[in-house]
Amino acid sequence: MEDDFDFNAAGAMNDEMMDDVAYDDAPVTLKVGEEKEIGKQGLKKKLLKEGEGWDTPDNGDEVEVHYTGTLLDGTKFDSSVDRGTPFKFTLGQGQVIKGWDQGIKTMKKGENALFTIPAELAYGESGSPPTIPPNATLQFDVQLLSWLSVKDICKDGGIFKKILNKGENWENPKDLDEVLVNYEVRLEDGTVVAKSDGIEFTVEDGHFCPALSKAVKTMKKGEKVLLTVKPQYGFGEKGKQASDNEGAVPANATLQITLELVSWKTVSDVTKDRRVIKKILKEGEGYERPNEGAVVQVKLIGKLQDGTIFTKKGYDDVAELFEFKTDEEQVIEGLDRAVMSMKKGEVATLTVAPEYAFGSTESKQELATIPPNSTVIYELELVSFVKEKESWDMNTQEKIEAAGKKKEEGNSLFKAGKYLKASKRYEKAVKYIEYDTSFGDEEKKQAKALKVSCNLNNAACKLKLKEYKQAEKLCTKVLENDSRNVKALYRRAQAYINLADLDLAELDIKKALEIDPDNRDVKLEYKVLKEKMREYNKKDAKFYGNIFAKLGALDSKKTAAPMAIDSKA
């Protein structure tokens, strides 16, 4: 069977009544002139003028408003408009009455609203003499002018970020990305201790102090912020000595850092083990990427770490683009896998470790020889690609033909000992014909036979890869449709033996022998199983023998102890 591959209004309002309240944070949608209750404590909001966009401030943000406060009879008691100076406060920190904290966080920039605030969310039973009586319901005509977003980015009070200029788009840098920033660091007394423009660093490696890498991961391109950094994210208890270009930072100092994220280069771990690293120098077009089997055209320059160029293709005016088919072992694995992560027009550098490059042997290339165990670097541009046809673009006969082709490719790879690649071919073959409702009767027969063969061959791959549970699942899938399939029983038994499910293995082998009593491979596997069972029985006997011996020794000690005491008496 080894060769079966068919098979918080105003300053006076910060009173003592700022206990926490629970209220509904759900968005309030109103039309101009419409009034609704916010939460369940009697706070009402009437929209007078719509604001801009969709954003609303959050707790911790520094908001700026104009307001006029009146009693229900129209008596005005306070107005920032009359003073000609907007009022600023930090939202959600108890700096204003509760009704303000709850209501203003529902507003958009430029919005004008009238809030009717019950006494419980204002000054309560005591009021605020002489202008506000006890138990007074108040009304505030409020216009939200602007706000600065302030976030506790580490959720421990260690770094507060105030956004000065909003950035572009929605993406943030990740650990491997290389960021370009401008920054200025001051002590609380205003002393500048560091300043730099155009500094580039990898996020996970960090720069200057831990706060910078923590902050940039929350920023967008072009965003500028003011960070308040506590010692644990600065220089802690030791502080920092002065250097040539930087001043000293005292022990336990809080820092004020102005930070701007100019841009960054996206760096990705192609193989998820940090052995093939791709840094994007120029973003590509659209969203499409090459799939397995795509024909790609690229420009590339391959270099050793010392800068020696060993290959150059497609960069000269007369040079043809380098063309290859992905997932066909026509190029080194690191290059193959990286190209499938790229978009048309993307330019990137790849750093490829030996195991994904030329390995432990010397490799002669057209411009230089690559020494054994070399890490190589490619400058690469994906000029164009044609994707391999997907199953949803095929008619039924094309699906069957594609499945057959992938199966044969899998067989060749299996015989070459490339079990992981072979397994992927079989899986792709089955995907082509997985859904056969549109197939004719003869096509369904062909598809069924292909599924059985590919699943069985894939099970053989999984056994070689020591993925025994997956092998068992594949065989079970076959047996659900053909309970007398000897190969499925045989390979599932092999999986069960390696999973130490010997009883299940024996059931499968016995059934296989009932169907095919003379099958040599099944008989040999039965011998392997019996030997395994003998080994397990010996281990069990020894294990339980040791337990009984220890129990016997304990019983002897228990009976001997009183006799020893008596003899001393």
TrEMBL record:
It catalyses: [protein]-peptidylproline (omega=180) = [protein]-peptidylproline (omega=0). InterPro entries: FKBP4/5/8-like (IPR050754), PPIase_dom_sf (IPR046357), PPIase_FKBP_dom (IPR001179), TPR-like_helical_dom_sf (IPR011990), TPR_rpt (IPR019734). TPR repeats lie at residues 486-519. Pfam families: FKBP_C (PF00254), TPR_1 (PF00515). GO terms for molecular function: calmodulin binding; peptidyl-prolyl cis-trans isomerase activity. Its EC number is 5.2.1.8. One of its GO terms (biological process) is cellular heat acclimation. Keywords: Calmodulin-binding, Isomerase, Repeat, Rotamase, TPR repeat. It is an enzyme of class 5 (isomerase). Belongs to the FKBP-type PPIase family. This is peptidylprolyl isomerase. It comes from Ambrosia artemisiifolia (Common ragweed).
